[in-house]
Every structure is written in C-alpha cells, then in structure tokens.
Amino acid sequence: MILEIAQIDVKPGLEAEFEAGIAEAAAIFKAAQGCRSFAVRRSIEKPQRYRLLIEWETLENHTVDFTGSQAWKDYRAMVSPCFEAPPSVEHTELTLQAF
Fold first, then answer.
1. Rounded distance, CA 49 to CA 3, Å?
2. Distance between CA atoms of 62 and 51, rounded to whole angstroms?
3. Do the beta carbons of residue 54 and residue 89 sit within 8 Å?
4. Neighbours of 2 (CB within 10 A)
5. What is the DSSP letter of 82?
6. Which residues of 15-30 are buried (b: 16+ CB within 10 A; e: fewer)?
7. What is the structure's pLDDT at 72?
8. Which of 9, 16, 81, 91 is the one with CA 20 to 30 A from 97?
9. Beta bridge partners of 54
10. Nearest partner of 56 among 23, 89, 99, 10, judged by Cα
C-alpha cells in the first residue's frame, strides 16, 4: 500500500470553495483503480493549508492509471482554481505501525 500525501495551499478566502470541490471530487477517487482511501486534513496553524492523504494499492495506480486520465483532469478542474501554488506531492510506504 502506498500513501500519497499532497500538500495544497489555497488562496485566501477560497477555503469553503476548495472544501466543497474536494468533497465532490471524493467520488472520483472512490472510483479510481487502486484507490483504497481518501481523506483531507486542514492545518490548524495554517488554515489555508490542506493535506490530502490518499492510499493507493500501487504507486502505478496513482502515477500511471490516475494521473493524466480524464478523471484526474475532472478532479483538477474542480479544485485547481483555488490553489495558491501547485501542490507538493510525495509517496510513502509504511515502515512501522506501532499502535
């Protein structure tokens, strides 16, 4: 399982619009091949910063199957007008789950 962490900084005043768009986009991720979970967290210290936590079965499910697909384009159309800058994305593997 791969965890994608996308950090998104939203333009001031567009937080509610972003949250509405990302809620609508959840259905796109639910239907995506290999997508196992989708969560969004908002920073307390920096309320314009969000982190998308998306679990993929494989790295390729995200980087090949999803990115560049029409579904990805639809998702980006819903939320990218709210972006302050391009998102920062990284992929992680679980090395320890202590409790």
1. 19
2. 16
3. no
4. 19
5. G
6. eeebbebbeebeebbe
7. 97
8. 9
9. 4, 38
10. 89
Structure tokens at 73: 């384009």
DSSP letter string over 3-14? EEEEEEEBPTT-
Report how far Cα 7 is from the mean position of its chain's Cα atoms: 8
Helix (H) or strand (E) holding 34: none
- Collapse the DSSP code of 81 into the 3-class scheme (helix H, G, I; strand E, B; otherwise coil) and give the result: helix
Helices (H), 1-99: 15-31, 59-60, 70-79
- pLDDT for the residue numbered 76: 96
Assigned token pair, 56: 């993929």
CA distance 65 to 93: 19
Identify which of 38, 52, 57 has the alpha carbon closest to the alpha carbon of residue 90. Answer: 52
**Per-residue pLDDT band at 26 (split at 50, 70, 90):** very high
Q: What integer pLDDT is reported at residue 17 of this predicted model? A: 98
C-alpha span between 29 and 38 (Å, rounded): 7
């320890």: which residue's tokens? 96
